[in-house]
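Weekly structure sync, notes
Attendees: PL (lead), two postdocs, one rotation student
Agenda item 3: pending single-chain targets
PL asked that the sequence for the first pending target be pasted directly into the notes so everyone works from the same version. It is reproduced below exactly as submitted, 374 residues in total.
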Amino acid sequence: MIDPKQFYEALIENGIDFFTGVPDSTLKDICAYITDNTKKERNIIAANEGGAVALATGYHLATNDIPLVYMQNSGIGNTVNPLMSLTDPYVYSIPMLLMIGWRGEPGKKDEPQHKKQGKVTLQLLEAMGIKYQILPDSIEGTQKIIQSSVTYMRNNNAPFAIVIRKGTFENYKLKTIFETDFELTREQAIKEIVQVLSDDDIVVSTTGKTSRELFELRDQLGQNHEKDFLTVGSMGHASQIALGIAIKKTDRNVFCFDGDGAALMHAGSMGIIGNLAPKNFKHIIINNGAHDSVGGQPTIGLSISFEQLARTFNYRNVFSANSSQILKHVFKDFAKSSGPNLLEIFVKKGSRKDLGRPTTSPLQNKQSFKKNLH
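Predicted structure, written out during the meeting:
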């Protein structure tokens, strides 16, 4: 295993001291070390991975230095456009180091949403013409790869990828921790809501711990799962899945359980919701200001106003809650009034240590959910 400190120092020694991207559980230890040891303006958590590539491009243009972009391999899809039409040697020829966490590596146990992406990760890089190396588990081999990648990027003015397996880095706990004093946890907020939903209500929940908590809460409350679509992958797209359902199932309320990081990733989707204006669309953003499912790295969720954003995007009604009492008070109006409506719930970071995962497969979830819809 590699000490994150030594890896970071190897990057610095080779002139790489600007970082941007979207945090990943595979990279959580090195991302935490970068956060603790890099000035805020030199480590920018982007809204999505494609935006990070563009940001890194701008940094290179201004400095001629090589930036680093970190991401989970599921985020490669968001980078294809800027990597092919911006940084590629056929276009602007921009060097940058891509640090990619390899979820779903063939032969390794992982969650179902990572299996296909893991299988084709190296093939995708090859198809895009991006040279890559799989990071070894020794610091000596790592230092050589970083040195050779910098030489390649300088000589060819092209991106280079380092692919990182699960368990490559030694544990490092984030020390730069921001605390909030909100009353509710995310799980408590979800419980307050699902207890009062009707049998006809439809739920689409975002990726990560939100869907995991929803699944376990249904079991705890003795409820079935057929009313819930668990978006276990596809971060940032839950609201558009919910929209596609809402515009056809106009006689049923559709609740989207979203997160601040996910909503920010493709924030323009809110504009589409507001423009189509489905009366049965009920958007809930559970805001803890963090990418909670991949290490607790901060988002800008607590620095902006989703309420104002929703109003700008023509949502009909906007509500907010930061306690159980307020949530109970506003939820009835939120659920019953004509939408599209937004409810922003401010919650603490963190989750139960014993939080499990759905015991049904994505296909089983889809089949039972479609049966309930039809």
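Discussion points:
- The two ends are 51 Å apart (CA to CA).
- The mean pLDDT is 95.
Action: rotation student to compare against the earlier draft before next sync.
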